[in-house]
């Protein structure tokens, strides 16, 4: 048996699931592993709210620092 991961538009989800429910030996794992927990969303929003302009750096500078550290 093979496993397949697909990404489909939200408005097509029900039709897609209903079709595959009738196929023998098909297992549907409806777990959304990409969801960010509410507590983490709140933490990020709080950090953004409390950040000062000097806390921010340019993306290019951040990438250079990461390259120095990991390459």
Q: What does it look like?
A:
It is a single chain. The longest helix has 13 residues. 0% of the residues are buried. This protein is mostly helical and 71 residues long. The mean pLDDT is 87. The protein starts with 12 loop residues before the first helix and ends with a helix. It is elongated, with a radius of gyration of 21 Å. It is built from 3 helices and no strands.
Average pLDDT, all residues:
87
Number of strands: 0
Order of helices and strands: HHH
Task: Specify the number of helices.
Answer: 3
Indicate the overall shape: elongated
What does the largest sheet look like?
none
Rg measurement, Å: 21 Å
Distance between the termini: 40 Å
Helix-strand layout with pairing:
Elements: H1 13-21, H2 38-50, H3 59-70
Protein traits:
mainly alpha, elongated, 71 residues
Could you provide a short overview of the structure?
With about 70 residues, the chain is mostly helical.
